[in-house]
Amino acid sequence: MTGISSPDPLKFAFAVKSAPHASRGGSHPLNLTPQQWQTWWASPTSATQRALYIHLPFCRKRCSFCNFFENGSNPARISHYVKSLSTQLNIASKTPFVQSGEFDTIYVGGGTPTDMQASEIAIIGETIQAFPLAKNAEITLEGRINGFTNAKFDAALESGFNRFSFGVQSFNTQVRLAAGRFDNRETLIERLQELSQHPSASIVADLIFGLPGQTMEIWQQDLQDVIQSGVHGVDLYQLIGLQGTRLSNQAQKEKDRNKPTHKETSKQTLTPAVDSQTRASMYATGASLLESSDWQRLSSCHWSRDSRERSIYNSLAKSGIEILPFGAGAGGNIHGHGIMNGRDLSLWHQAQSQVTESGTVADTLPSQVPGMVMSPNPSAALDSQFKAGLDSGALDLSEFNTELINHLMPLFYAWQTHGLVKLSHTIMTQTLAGRFWNVNLQTGLFAYLKQNPFQPCAN
């Protein structure tokens, strides 16, 4: 919960960041009936801010650090999927639930959405326009530079997309090859510079620090390259040792054998990822260089070159807004219920073709696809408020119940003692170390509340 006392909290306050996100329990799985599903789409929303998440579960290649690979990018399969997905989106857009409130941000993620053809990108973009969108709504297309042609860029712009997020991870050609990425350094920089010349679209690059073979010198060059590329926003993500990746599988094999045979050492293997202390230094280097170059920090891991890049989806998603999920593997929440659509593509397609009891195609409600539905979490609003504040780097204590803040003060004082935050009368500001260990702080806060339940005084 508290971290440990250390002369260098950036490197040693915690042993490791073991998960990409923090959460606490409070929900349980539900068996949603068709009648309840129908009621959801006939009822107006109570949310004041909303988002739409659309999932394209296709990739041409599995990267070494990724455990989300679902389906290969077969053109025929993608076309079939896009056709079914656009039908479901069109149906949903006409429901009372969707029409009852505007959408502030839309994110088309994956997978690799840019593996769609230009015409398919246009279909998804035009379908999004049928939803009630807020003025200047942020509409993001995620993907990779490789294969993202001018025809695809033009189709996306013409159909309403105004933000493009590319998973660069590293510019270094050798690091990229080891990670299973396409394209070399020169190709990436040149293409990002071309795209960034657009007068209004926001171009964003994701970088990962801690990749195998990525020395501090290489990381510093990655940072210089991303600035040189002209992009309007950049994410700096720490490599996490997720189970099921090529990296984690190799690490386990290394543990399972004492000494490799001559045959094994002759094989090409992945260089081990750098340790947590080096990753901490990489984060500090990245934050320092970007901010000294007049980039604005929007969260613990995202910076913008100018006001064009707003990162609305990323910030609002952490604050617990309503997110409507569409597509196999998509996640979100509807009427306070957590939703995670199943990843099985055949089952998802099967749900699209189901018929009603009367034998006619269900054309007034989006199909209820296989997946998990969770009960509303009674602490969801409070948890999201904490997560959003800590992710931003500063928690406004005046926004919370005074008794609750007093209840949490032992934890906050411990964080301050360990160099993770600075407390003032109404604001708790994270240090550089606190921002790096942001998810650990969130996890610690939820663990504290679980072990020390807050009981407000009776009036």
Index terms:
9-stranded mixed β-sheet, Arc Repressor Mutant, subunit A, pyruvate-formate lyase- activating enzyme, 2 domains, about 450 residues, 4-stranded antiparallel β-sheet, alpha/beta, about 20% strand, globular, 4 iron, 4 sulfur cluster binding
- Total domain modules: 2
Multimeric organization? single chain
CATH class category name of the largest domain: Alpha Beta
| Mass-distribution shape | globular
Could you estimate the helical fraction of the residues in percent? 25-40%
CATH H level of the largest domain: which superfamily? Answer: tm_1862 like domain
Radius of gyration: 23 Å
Largest sheet: 9 strands, mixed
Secondary structure class reads alpha/beta
CATH topology of the largest domain: pyruvate-formate lyase- activating enzyme
Low-confidence segments, ≥5 residues, pLDDT <50? 262-270, 355-361
The CATH architecture of the largest domain comes to Alpha-Beta Horseshoe
**Tally of DSSP β-strands:** 16
- The number of distinct helices, counting runs of at least 4 residues, comes to 18
The end-to-end span amounts to 31 Å
Rounded mean pLDDT score: 90
β-sheet strand percentage: 15-25%
